[in-house]
Write a structure and sequence with these properties.
The structure is a homotetramer. Chain A contains 2 helices and 5 strands. Chain A is an alpha+beta fold.
């Protein structure tokens, strides 16, 4: 699998996150698990409004991340989000975390599956599909 | 001890923090321990530049918090910081966490003690005292 | 307020917690906010069975901690829990965190208030009061 | 890539972790990012003794996880660790997180690269290679 490094402007949705003291680990840079906290945070900003009006939940079945550079508290980070593949019940996200100076620190991927309350996968609503379609990355990286 | 509730504008130093998905606990609001992550984050924005130029560290010997209202992801919070008492080696902080709409969610207090590398308390440098003096709360709350 | 330092054997309820890499902050010891994660964890082991059978929730209105010594990953910690005051709707907890070698690292206090779903305080059930009564500290520390 | 699901007994190194209240997210189960906190914790139990006696650090360049089932506070989890590939400067880990009843909840992979203090990759010491060799998985899964 070839990974195309994205730039912040390639992502259709971005948010700014101020780092916290607890993001740094004993090595003095942001810990690898903290990147996933940011992935969770930005994807749920998109997903929660879609799920609120439905009886579905969205479960994560896969996560991965490649780390290219360090970032550290107290930097303010930019996080970019796009959809790399949109299935019937699954959405594949691509995420980039950028330092205050614009350096790509981490590229990540998340897969959410839309499920009913019993955690069985289901087709997402057409409203959800429509919203997620707007976030599809035009520079395909997968 | 009477606690005077502060308003955001009473604090000499403020920062904005975007909440994260992981800030919410099973009750769907920001977990009580996460407020201390914010206290740590904003106080170290002030302390780190002071400590970088010295051979001292600053250890927390006391923390407390009173919780008045809930906040929740994905709100963007305002955190206010001031000094309520400035000793020879100790700084007593007062902190307020405010919701996106300006409601006071939590008032907290932290005590940092300046120490040498062997963790013995020491007088802070006059430069540190001078900087911290600028942050003393004019509406005393302790 | 005089704080009487408790020993692990003074607490009627104890649990062992393995520290995690992320517990350590940039100073290489367990971060002050992480102690509250442990307080939350052990108190809810007691509270959750009581709340499950009721329509009440328990909200934290106050937390404080005094830090006496450092602990650090990968230590396995002992956490002790007792009730220092039991009200009609409020339970005051006292908590101790002990290093692998038995040193008291932190003494903390938590106040949970039993509430209805609209977050109004309510008397706790007699079943809850009975269970919490069993955990009252016999060496009063407040 | 075919992923062979491992059983706990297939891993040469295992540790028990008590879950914490904050591990659960708003959905009431352990949050996906928390699994990486456990990966970090168990791999560093192996790595730290190796690094302490050297001038090297170990940086994470890749992490991924597949989620199969939920676990939740207050469960006590079992985490299994093995080496799936051992390079000159890189170690590829395979990790399994198991519920209290032995169900595989998550399979993960981590890649640590041994580096000098300037973060350039370097061959690991023969002592490190020897220790890590002992943890190589005999049921190859990659």
């Amino acid at each position: 699998m070839t990974i195309t490094k994205q730039r912040l402007q390639d992502f259709p949705f971005t948010l700014e996150y101020r780092t916290r003291w607890s993001d740094n680990d004993a090595y003095g840079h942001m810990n690898n698990a903290k990147y996933l906290e940011l992935f969770d945070s930005i994807t749920n900003v998109v997903l929660e409004p879609l799920l609120k009006t439905s009886s579905q939940i969205a479960l994560i079945v896969h996560a991965d991340a490649d780390y290219y550079a360090s970032v550290a508290y107290p930097e303010v980070l930019q996080v970019g989000l796009g959809v790399s593949r949109l299935g019937r019940s699954a959405v594949h996200w691509e995420l980039g975390v950028f330092s205050a100076t614009g350096t790509l620190a981490c590229m990540g991927r998340y897969v959410h599956v839309f499920c009913n309350k019993s955690q069985k996968s289901e087709a997402m609503s057409s409203l959800s599909a429509q919203r997620l379609q707007e976030l599809v990355l035009t520079t395909p990286s997968l």
